[in-house]
Amino acid sequence: MRLLSEFKKVLSEEEYFPLDVLDCPAISKAGQPMLGHVDPYGDTMFNRAQMRTLLDEIDALLAADALLTADQRRYLSFLRKLCVLGDAPHRYLWVWGA
Question: CA angle, corner 95, sides to 91 and 98, nearest 5?
Answer without folding.
Answer: 155
